[in-house]
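If your schedule permits, I should be very grateful for your opinion on a structural question. The matter concerns a single protein, recorded as an amino acid sequence and a row of backbone structure tokens. Could you please explain, in whatever detail you think fit, how the structure tokens follow from the sequence? I set the record out below, with my sincere thanks for your time.

——
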Amino acid sequence: MNTMLRPPHSQDAPATPFRRAAGPLVALMLGASLLGSAQAKDAIRWQKPGWHFISRIMYQQDIQKNLKLRKNNISSQSLGMPEARLVTRYQHDDHWGFVFDIEPYVSLWRADGNPQENDTMLYLPQLYAEAQFKEYGTRARLGRWSTDDERTWFFDTDFDGLNVTVERGPWLVDAFVAQYDVWRHDLFNRNAPHEKGDKLAAAMGTYRLNKDHQLILKGLRQVNDKKEGMHLTHLIGGSINTPSEGMQHWALASYVSGHQNDRRVRGEAIDVGATLFVDSSSRWNPRATLGYAWGSGDDGKGTDNSHHQTGMQTNKSEMGAVYDFKTYGTVLNPALTNIHVLTAAVGIAPMKDSSLDLVYHHYRQDKLGA
């Protein structure tokens, strides 16, 4: 079956102004982190003894029309996905716990002139043992656990390995050594070929100025010899402020270095913007957002100067809304490489826990390939 629809579970150079500024930026972030707190995401949630369950049932429907100019002779196709999820936690005492997360779903593919095709899957997003020591501000997880990062620039997925989080007052540092997909995600699909994914080592921290404002500094090492000899190091620093009124802002800078495809890699990216809540006293809570992102491109000569994301990112953010969405556009959903993206958006909250947003993206290529 050839279809564009897929289930949701199915990256010495000349000096540039940004590269010249990268050293002072990293020094500033390191200096700031020595003064205060480091945090990867939220503070540690200390678990209480007993059984805990979280369940979810949902249905997704994706419909595409007029595909004849794009693929085969299909004019319409749809993918329906009834899905359930059950997360089970058993906390033996104040220190030891266990988490089991199972996600069964069925994909129903239909296209004109074709019989319906069904595929049943049983996914295992999380399975890990956990040790927590509140008196030391430390938590460790061993197994498969789900994770993401601010604006999901690095990843929004799950890993197999060891994760350690340390919290000291305002300080919090999250570190892990892991590999992607050590064992199969789909427990029903045991006959298909299976390859282990990227090996990773990461240390992520944030300097939290207050409950809304944080400075972040993160590093990630990514290795996969089967991906054109990929050996990459990613560094990210910046500031994120998300108050519920007034002005929110984000300002992030990324630098990636290493080797891939027998070429030296040196790439950069920035992502800056702000959301203004125009009138927080209004029940509509109107807001406006303006943002700009740039990922360096490559001309195909010498050093590869394109910015590489990890390939496990989803690039999602809220921009003042209740729910997150694709930061650089839902339709194209580009990686932040060889591109300039200008974003303008307006939004309101018509009801509690809801948002309605109109988002505009303007794209420009950074460099033409050789």
User: Anything to note?
Assistant: Confidence is low (pLDDT under 50) at residues 1-40.
